[in-house]
Amino acid sequence: MGRKKLEIKRIEENGARMVCFSKRRSGLIKKAKELSVLCDVDLAAIIFSNRGKLFQYCSTDSILQRYQAESSTGSREEKGQSSDDSGFITSDEILQKVERELDELCVTDLVLLEKQIEVALIQTRSAKTQRMLDTVSSLREEKNNLADEKRSLEEITGSNRNTSKKKMIVDLNNVADDRMTE
User: Fold this and answer.
1) Per-residue pLDDT at 22
2) What gap in Å lies between CA 27 and CA 20, rounded to an integer?
3) H helices then E strands: how many in the chain?
4) CA atoms within 13 A of residue 4's CA, in its CB half-sphere
């Protein structure tokens, strides 16, 4: 009896997804090792989890340098352009840059970098919060100014209504007095 064919779609349950990722990642690395040994080829596998954690396998130490040399000369010559001309950085270039920088860092450097990122994040959040509070404050001030202006306009229109009523009364009285004298 064969295995049931698995439909390839995103696993919704987080725990099951993480278990599947872990098992398939180790299976992929195992297959990469086997392919490297059986076929005598240089092989590298780079995997990033959804949380950004790096998993890698390299059959030789020089494979990344060879890849970088090949990709920087071969692909750009074929395309006839460099990444500097296009103004955009490709995901491959970002991956290479991250790999180079991570190889150069030791654990203490990574911990220091993590702390610096956390501090920058805290500063960014506090600046965002301060801007939001400033905006709320200015909106409240504007609301109060508009309410004051509304009150003053209501007073002006209210006094105009009262004076126009008085004029009407005076005018009616004048008309009545004029008729009586006639």
Assistant:
1) 92
2) 10
3) 6, 2
4) 3
Residue 43 near residue 35, CB atoms below 8 Å: yes
- Give the pTM: 0.39
Q: Yes or no: say if 113 and 105 are a contact pair by the CB < 8 Å rule.
A: yes
Tokens describing residue 43: 């092989």
Cα–Cα dist 45/52, whole Å: 15
> To 10 degrees, the CA torsion angle through 99, 115, 17, 48?
-10
The predicted model gives 41-58 an average pLDDT of: 86
Which of 67, 55, 8 is CA-nearest to residue 29? 55
Residue found by looking up tokens 């911990």 in the block: 111
Cβ neighbours of residue 157 closer than 8 Å, sequence gap 6 or more: none
Q: In angstroms, rounded to a whole number, what is the distance separating the alpha carbons of residues 75 and 82?
A: 9
pLDDT for residue 33 is more than 80: yes
- CA-based end-to-end distance of the chain: 123
Three-state SS for 46-103 is: EEECCCCCEEEEECCCCHHHHHHHHHHHHHHHHHCCCHHHHCCCCHHHHHHHHHHHHH
- DSSP letters spanning 116-136: HHHHHHHHHHHHHHHHHHHHH
DSSP class of residue 45 equals E
